[in-house]
Amino acid sequence: MRTLMLSANELNTAKIAADIIKNGGLVAIPTETVYGLGANGLDESAVAKIFEAKGRPQDNPLILHVSRTEDIEKFCHSIPQAAYALAEAFWPGPLTMVLPARDTVPKRTTAGLDTVAVRCPDCAITRDIIALSGVPIAAPSANISGKPSTTTAQHVHHDHDGRIDAIVDGGPCRVGVESTIVDLTDERPRLLRPGGITPQQLKAVLGDLVIDKAVTASIDHDAVVKAPGMKYRHYAPAEPVVIVSGSREKAAQYIRKHFEPGDRVLCFEEELPLYEGCAPLSYGQEADVDTLCAGLFAALRELDDPSIHQVYARCPEGDGVAFAVQNRLKKAAAFHVIDAEVEV
Ligand code: TXA
Ligand code: MG
């Protein structure tokens, strides 16, 4: 199969992409968070192709992308007022809501659950593609399963050239980590995955929020979890990653002492001078967490190289958007954290 490269700036791109979706094909779509691998979310056989292309476990459900809030009524029922309040505050934007699913949504999309995740992305070309195709687009992050997510069209090309129908190039993703997911099907709203919309922002609208334990801790493979995707090893480069926490100086002391040839250091731009000779790679500025979010996956992909032995990574402290960076980096590190204030 030849994979078409379409530019978001070309006038007919939305129509070409929408036609492929209508015909049951696969199109990688840009969003403000990460690139998605999209197909008609109401077409079982189109959705099956997503799972095949990604190598995604069948029990991991997909997010339905809509071009406007009203459309969730076609795919969800018993929608609480809180969902409309969140949509009003954050859509289009990096927020996904889990709601009770209508029968119109195939079980293959929801992986057999009676709930469905919905989101309206903050990306005009992708909303145009959804609107023109006349169906919701089911789209997981476009990376091969288990690998770091795709934040440029080139990342998608690397993973899927020759295996999908088209890639729409909308440039690098602004946010850089996947959407915040909030489950509204329980008595209390529950955060399933942190992202660009912070827990503080959600609480300001909802008044209440439970943080699911899978967000901050490692999960057993057999455990029953709210978002099935949370139990899989994620975002991981080929080699082991270990997070080194503690002050800038203590962390540098620890890493420089244990560093061996073939290792790499993933750090903040401000720390680069501390790691001369240790093959450092910066993913953004500690002083501006948004840049860390935007740069994390590209850096993890660069470090996805079997010739590297081990990666020592620095992780931002704090809540807000830093919470999302901590979640992704800890998953990449399989929750392996060394405290340089304690260990030498
Ligand atoms: O930013 C994003 O959300 C990107 C872009 C493309 O929109 N998409 C994305 O999809 O990250 P994916 O498939 O990589 O992650 C979706 C997560 C998975 O962890 C999945 O288990 C969870 O959402 N999920 C989907 N449907 C669910 C449901 N009904 N209940 C609970 N979790 C659900
Ligand atoms: Mg993903």
Textual characterization of the structure:
The chain is an alpha/beta fold. It has two domains: about 5-215, DHBP synthase, CATH 3.90.870; about 240-344, Rossmann fold (3-Layer(aba) Sandwich). Helices cover about 30% and strands about 15% of the residues. The chain contains eleven helices and 16 strands. The protein has helices at about 15-20, 45-55, 70-75, 80-90, 105-110, 125-135, 155-160, 200-205, 250-260, 290-300, 320-330, and strands at about 5, 25-30, 35-40, 65, 95-100, 115-120, 135-140, 165-170, 180-185, 190-195, 210, 240-245, 265, 280, 310-315, 335-340. The protein has an eleven-stranded mixed β-sheet, with helices on both faces. Strands 14-13-15-12-16 form a five-stranded parallel β-sheet, sandwiched between helices. A hairpin with a 6-residue loop joins strand 2 (about 25-30) and strand 3. Helix 1 packs across helix 6 and helix 10 packs parallel to helix 11 (about 320-330). The longest helix is centred in the last third of the chain and has 14 residues, at about 290-300. The protein is globular. The mean pLDDT is about 95. Bound molecules: threonylcarbamoyladenylate and magnesium ion. Threonylcarbamoyladenylate binds near residues 61 and 226.
Condensed summary:
The protein has about 350 residues and is of the alpha/beta class. Helix content is about 30%, strand content about 15%. It is built from eleven helices and 16 strands.
